[in-house]
Amino acid sequence: MKPLQIIKTVLYVLGGIAVLILNNVIMESEFVGILVGIVIALYAADVIILSVAEKTMLGENGLFIALSHLLLAVVMFVVSNDIVKVCLVWAVWSILREGKELSECAHRLYHKKPALISAIESVVIIIFSFTMILEPGEHHAHVHVIILGIELILEVFFPIANKFLDDLIEKRKNKANTAE
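Predicted structure:
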């Protein structure tokens, strides 16, 4: 694993655990908008770093997508004291992000690679996001905070699990080809 990937993995897992443990404190302190703004900004920074490192700045997951996410983070900071606006911005960002994830899942499934669990997770988050749009408020925001903690952990777990499964599938294919 590359050093940046290790740092990302540790930060996301620790962040996810912290959000899960402190979810009540986050909601009571009304810092949910700021927390989500920070998470959106971190996702954007991650995309910026990867797009620069991989020289894919103009690609579909490149610099301009990351800049639009940074703008959403700024909006989140501005509206952080209004839970209804926080829910709406957060839900829109989640739907956009999970739409991209579903595209990646479809691509993986098309190439006969495992992605069903990741696809289910994306659909669940999209459903919860629609719920936050239809009924923005503290209850749905609190549920989404808990999902955020889980999602931060899964964000690094799924790529690791997918790489492991892809390598395993490739080994089996190679073993089957050499046996013929």
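Summary: The CA atoms of residues 46 and 63 lie 10 Å apart.
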